[in-house]
Amino acid sequence: MKYFTQDLYDEMQVRGCMGSYFESEEDLQKEISWYALEGRDFYKESRDRFEWMRPHMLRFLPPHLLKYVYDESIMDCNIYSPVMKAEIQTWKNEWDMKWKTVCDQYWAHYDSISGQLPKEVQRLDKEIKLHDATILEVLVYEQKVEILLDLVGYPEHNYKFIFSGVRVFNNYPGMIGDVVQYVEIDMTEEGIFRLEILMNSRNIFHITAKELAILTILTEN
């Protein structure tokens, strides 16, 4: 992946986990009460989220925000001070600009090669959104690979992708059941297309092929 890398995805999780905070003690107590009614421990879940995210925060947050990680005041069970909220919001705004820059760079590159792509490949991530799709089946033949996908928003059918003239395919263990995160499409020097996908497992789905056919398969009700 040249643009939507694993590091960028991990950094995005840090950005996402700081997307909201409590404005008052009253708001915090309402949240605690709601968790209790659901039979859940608000503080335990907050701690679990923080411990999962802490390594990423220490890696990606700028130095002036690390003090909030070390003293754990950045945990989402706390009420942030006005200074802390302002500092975090500034970093979030800067990160949003970073994300926009990466997206703009990728789509500028995509637009420069889109005319060379097979027609069905041009449908990917434009007409057919792959984000959060689940891989249901993988069939590998000589120079042909068939992938059955469950796409979000299409409960009445699945999509079968049939890649032909396959040169490279990394059929990694655990592919079935894995979920698509971010997609990159490119052309090789030989003039055939390359599809790379950052998966939820952190594996990279990678296939290089000459052609792609897309079929819709009705699901059983």
Description:
- The two termini are 37 Å apart.
- A hairpin with a 2-residue loop joins strand 1 and strand 2 (144-150).
- The radius of gyration is 21 Å and the shape is elongated.
- Helix content is 37%, strand content 24%.
- The strands form 2 sheets. The chain has a 4-stranded antiparallel β-sheet, with no helix packed on it.
- The model has no long low-confidence stretch (mean pLDDT 93).
- It has helices at 6-17, 25-37, 42-60, 66-70, 82-113; strands at 134-141, 144-150, 157-164, 168-169, 180-187, 193-199, 204-209, 211-218.
- It has 221 residues and is of the alpha+beta class.
- It has 5 helices and 8 strands; from the N terminus they run αααααββββββββ.
- Helix 1 (6-17) crosses helix 3 (42-60).
